[in-house]
Design a protein that fits this description.
The chain has about 250 residues and is mainly alpha-helical. The protein has eleven helices and no strands.
Length: about 250
């Protein structure tokens, strides 16, 4: 296929699919470890068109497995402004070089992450999490970052960790949010950014076994991790993801 130039390209594609499967089944944020590799290999904007259908398939599997443990009130808080974030991303894309998006997103996430970690270390509840504007702000940032680079995993992780959500509710809520958001992005990326084509879909079809294996690994890890261990593991992966966006 014309987008694949070498065996290493296939390796990066399959590695990305494995990480996406793990991320959607519980190890949130780990997808960002592969996003830079995909951008370098296939190009920043083309890579988002390859990754999105893989995400959609993994989202569907996650929802089927965790469908009964989602906290829909949190999803509904985020969705309206997430859609607004799509529009902001499309507008900003016309004025700001793509190379600056990564640092912009990383800076926003770093600020919120510091506040969350500070509250966690002090053992106090985040007093802002009950404010009416708290969820919508995360929805806006999440919609923007997912449209620009499929990079909203850390945004959602920080939000759900900050409201002290139990691990299974965390995974189920995250699954439903991204199922809706990612499927809404498909027409925009086909007709506005034109980076989902027959060729990219054929590449995505080849990754299905790796997504399935990743999902099984993710489910097993979530079951084995205790509640506190799940929170700390998710925080660690999120911190690494944010650092990668700032480099």
């Amino acid at each position: 296929m014309e987008l694949i130039g070498s065996l290493s390209d296939w390796g990066i594609l399959f590695f990305t699919a494995l990480l996406i499967g793990m991320s959607k089944s519980g190890i949130q944020g780990i997808t960002l470890l592969a996003v830079p590799l995909m951008a370098i290999t296939f190009g920043a904007k083309p890579s988002t068109g390859i990754i999105l259908p893989i995400l959609c398939f993994a989202d569907l599997m996650a929802v089927l497995y965790y469908r009964r443990v989602a906290e829909w009130r949190y999803v509904l808080k985020l969705l309206p402004t997430a859609i607004a974030g799509f529009a902001v991303a499309i507008i900003v894309d016309r004025f700001i070089p793509a190379s600056q998006f990564k640092h912009l997103m990383g800076g926003c996430l770093l600020l919120v992450l510091i506040v969350m970690l500070w509250s966690e270390l002090r053992g106090k509840e985040n007093k802002y999490s009950h404010c009416w504007w708290y969820g919508p702000i995360f929805g806006l940032v999440g919609g923007f970052t997912t449209m620009i680079g499929n990079a909203a995993g850390p945004v959602m992780a920080i939000y759900l960790l900050s409201v002290k959500m139990p691990k299974y509710n965390f995974v189920g809520t995250n699954a439903w949010f991204f199922l809706v958001v990612n499927y809404l992005k498909i027409p925009l990326q086909i007709y506005v950014w034109e980076n989902i084509t027959t060729t990219t879909l054929l590449l995505d079809a080849c990754t299905i076994p790796f997504v399935l294996v990743g999902a099984l690994i993710g489910v097993r890890l979530v079951k084995k991790l205790p509640e506190k261990g799940f929170r700390y593991f998710t925080m660690t992966v999120t911190v690494v993801s944010v650092i990668m966006m700032l480099i």
